[in-house]
Amino acid sequence: MLENINNSLFSFINATPDSAQWMIDLAIFIAKDAIGIVPLLAVVLWLWGPRDQVGTQRQLIIKMAIALVVSLAVSWAMGHLFPHDRPFVDHVGYNFLHHAADDSFPSDHGTVIFTVALAFLFWHRIWSGAVLMVLAVTIAWSRVYLGVHWPLDMVGGLLVSMIGCLSAQMIWQKYGASLYRSLQTCYRICFALPIRKGWVRD
Fold first, then answer.
1. The dihedral of CA 29, 33, 37, 38: what is its sign?
2. CA angle (12, 13, 17) in 5-degree steps
3. Which of 29, 52, 83, 186 has fewest C-beta within 10 Å?
4. Alpha helices, DSSP H, located in 34-150
5. What is the C-alpha to C-alpha distance for residues 99 and 32, in angstroms, rounded to an integer?
6. Membrane-spanning residues where (predicted)?
7. Over 80: is that where the pLDDT of 1 sits?
């Protein structure tokens, strides 16, 4: 049943040789490069921001990092427990993006971007999380469109990201305060000069 739905959705989304080249080029950019917003957001939110909000921003980054570690660990375990070939390995549909023929479920790209989007929804602002969720869905679409993932790989990434965020909240409640203080201390030592110059926030 699920495999039939998976195949039907893939056939509906997957590009073909008749698809517009600009659409394929745009999908390749989204699939490969849009994920770069994750480290960029982390750096910007840690180093800059309103003085009365930077502490909250840094706590968000720490929670997000914990969620990502848990999510990717669960993703790795699921990939080994429930191996699933990529569409092009099964000679299904069309492939427009070079990719190793490793396990496809759940999607690592989907896991990362859905985890970040949920982190912002839960611990930042609804609007910022909604914007990132739109980006997450777009990345998920692009990788199915280009033929390197099945639709259910992306659903798996979303479910794993939920586990990651829930785990991060539980870990934060127990160890968050001490972890935040330790990382703040390390940051102030390592970035003493930029902080003193006023280039970044204390």
1. positive
2. 95
3. 52
4. 37-47, 54-81, 108-123, 126-145
5. 11
6. 26-48, 60-78, 130-148, 154-172
7. no
For 36-58, letters b (16+ CB in 10 Å) and e give: eebeebbeebbbeeeeeebeebb
Q: What does the pLDDT look like over 155-178, one tens digit per residue? A: 999 999 999 999 999 999 999 999
Q: Name the helix (H) or strand (E) containing 100.
A: none
Q: Is residue 145's pLDDT more than 90?
A: yes
Q: Domain boundaries in the chain?
A: 43-88+102-197
What CA–CA distance (Å, rounded) separates 162 from 118?
7
Between CA 179 and CA 82, with CA 76 as vertex, the angle to 5 degrees is 145
What whole-number distance in Å separates Cα of residue 61 and Cα of residue 139? 21
Q: What torsion, rounded to 10 degrees, do the Cα atoms 119, 44, 72, 67 define?
A: -40
Q: Assign 34 a pLDDT band (cuts: 50, 70, 90).
A: very high
**Distance between CA atoms of 170 and 133, rounded to whole angstroms?**
23
Quickly tell me which residue has 């972890």 as its tokens.
179
Average pLDDT, integer, range 82-105: 88
Q: What Cα–Cα distance (Å) separates residue 136 from each residue in 6, 108, 110, 146? A: 19, 12, 7, 16
